[in-house]
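Hey team,

Filing this mostly as a record. A colleague (T.K.) asked me to run one chain through the structure pipeline before their review meeting, and I want the input and output archived in the tracker in case anyone asks later how it was produced. No errors, nothing strange. Just documentation.

Input sequence:
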Amino acid sequence: MLKQLTQLKTALFDFDGVIVDTEPIYDIYWNEAGERYGLGIKNFASHIKGTTLPYILDKYFSGYSEEFKEMVLRESMEFESQMPFPPVRGAMDFIHLLKDNGVKTGLVTSSDDVKVKRAFHLLQLDNLFDTVVTADRITRGKPDPMCYLLAASDLKVSPAECLVFEDSFAGVQAGSSAGMRVIGLSTTNSQESLQDKVYKVIPNFENITINQYKEW
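Output structure:
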């Protein structure tokens, strides 16, 4: 039994769109913000999914003044300080199932420490993850694989021994570029748009068994 448990891959989870169904909330905020800031980018939220706030500021606000960028940062932080965290269906039960079966787990998110700390408190996530990688621990965000490689290093496992759960194209690319198998959640993007980029697509974690995890 112990030998079997050691063969189970480490599970690495993105946060938004994987553990919590917050992407629709972000869509409303960032699409409105993109118009308010005069970016001229249709459906701005779709361009930044899975990326860090510093990346967003560098790529889309590089021509703006420091004062303007500080305003964008402040408004984003104020928004995140009040947003709810509705769980993706079955996510909490699935993570507990993995822990009960001896699977190492990690949280790998483009969010910062402040947001993650608040989420851990509200969702009672303490002690569920063996490592946590946030935007504050990396210098290159998704789609760069740095965050997933750091999580594997934290847990002393090889990338090939990791199974990644992602919803955004940037996150899927990060996990794949790290040399990890990726399970895509169609919470943010359609099954059709994900299926040629991941090992398998699932709508959520409802009724996922440990045997299915072993098959992945």
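Quick notes for T.K.: Strands lie at 10-13, 105-108, 131-133, 162-166, 181-185, 200-202. The CA atoms of residues 16 and 98 lie 19 Å apart.
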